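During the reporting period the student researcher (J.K.) took over the structure-prediction task from the postdoctoral fellow and processed the backlog of single-chain submissions. One of the processed entries is reproduced below for the supervisory committee.
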Amino acid sequence: MRPTFLPYNQPEVGEDEWRAVGEAIMSRWITRGRLTQQLEEALADYLGVPEVVGLSSCTAGLHLALMAAGVGPGDEVISTPMTFAASINVIDQVGAKPVLVDVDEDTGNLNLDLVEQAITRRTKAVLPVHYGGHSVDLVRLNRIRDRWGLAIIEDAAHALGSRHDGHLVGSSGNLTAFSFYATKNLTTGEGGALVVPDAAMAERIRALSLHGLSRNAWNRYSEGGDWRYDVMAPGYKYNMTDIEAAMGLTQWAKFEAMQQKRAQLASHYQQRLRLLPVVVPAVRPGFDHAWHLFPIHLRLDVMSKTRDQVIEELRRRNIGTAVHFIPIPHFTYYQRRYGFKPNDFPHAETFYASEISLPLYPSMSFEDVDDVVDALAESVGD
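J.K. obtained the following structure tokens:
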């Protein structure tokens, strides 16, 4: 057994981030400013898109994207039960109705056959989640978008660096929200970004992220700024800060190296897990996985233990894990408000009942992976 606990996740941060954040603080400009703009530009250049807006979270991005797409009371938004609550909360918060459909058994992503069947005259948007770092089939989803005149708002919290048919998630012309939370492949501590398809919409979203003001603080208070401003709409306080962006720019400089390490660790997991009663994450042909998560599925049909018992056995052996996700119909609010029941989505339920997310982050060693697999081999046994 490992002598020390291996946490489920640790951010890849060190002296470079410490130095960058310190320099941002000592510059005396610590809210949204030039560093946030630099991070936005770096992401836009990487994705090949006209605009990226830095925000306080991926959730803020999804909320503002729904508003920018004109989604509101009386509208329906098709989404997935296999996600974190934030993806569905924002639909509820703009006054729309979440319409959930089941997921594919292998990837945990939205089943697009069911998406097409769920479209009604009230459907205004589809909000897919790129589960674990494996992209939804965006080619097909965009055909659905164009056929029905829908907005596609991508929850790409797991998917920075993910590709489909060689195209990066975020580059297909949709409003796409990324997360830079502490556990993500690139972190700013908290934070996120929204890909926006045109400049006019981006300016509106930037205004909404800053109380609806026509000028942000940099435009008002920096040298050459103008103190006058207008309030264009009742907005929110969703902006990214330069302290966060300083960390993000440092992370960005090593993003590709971190992604390569994640892929190497995932490959080592796949090799080592072949003889255990588990199913490793699916990677469909034509897709490049971002490896935010490494979600395995226990072969419960050939085991005497439950998923929860295996998680507890791993914890006793100093291995941290997580579960992604408790499906939305399990939560009291959505049961009461929309009548969702767990058995409404059998694939999501099966996916959830057998899923364990194993540790995966760049500072792990291959020996750490071996420790996880050895502990798992002992935990699944009688």
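The committee noted the following: The radius of gyration is 21 Å.
J.K. will present the remaining backlog at the next meeting.
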